[in-house]
Amino acid sequence: MKLKYKLSLMMIGITVIVVSVIALILVLEASRIARKLSLEGIRYLAANQVTYWKGQEDGSIMILRTLANVMSDYEYTPAELRRDQFDHMLFGTMTSNPSFINIYVVWKPNAVDGMDSRFIGRTGSTATGQYAIAYTRETGEILSRTTMI
User: Fold this and answer.
1) Could you tell me the pTM of the whole model?
2) Using the 8-state DSSP alphabet, how is residue 114 labeled?
3) 11-34 pLDDT per residue, tens
4) Cβ atoms of 93 and 67 closer than 8 Å
5) From CA 4, how far away is CA 64, in angstroms rounded?
6) What are the boundaries of each domain within the chain?
7) What CATH superfamily is the domain 79-149?
8) Could you tell me if 134 and 103 are in contact, meaning their C-beta atoms sit under 8 angstroms apart?
9) Which pLDDT tens digit goes with each residue over 113-133?
């Protein structure tokens, strides 16, 4: 083989090696950049989801605190109307918040109105008449039942 062909083959070989090394370096760098951007995107989406669910949780807790605050002023409502008023508030809360599956309230015996014995057998009253009602959406429609305590 002539020297001219040997030098040409050697230059082609060196050029192929140099181009291959440069291509490998560029592919590795592009891969690193793509991974970095993917992780940043995932972190951004995760932060948005955390913010969304934190807002949902805070909203639900605010609703429950509002109900508790309203119910804590029960002395200002006539005793015979309290259970019905609380029932309407809980039912209204369930209808206006489709994400709620269950909501319930349990009062100590004779604490809500002092008339537990008059309400034996009423939905939302235990066997002793204690006020313990639950609203549920487990089957798709809102149902009321006595909470098991």
Assistant:
1) 0.71
2) S
3) 999 999 999 999 999 999 999 999
4) yes
5) 89
6) 1-72, 79-149
7) PAS domain (3.30.450.20)
8) yes
9) 999 999 999 999 999 999 999
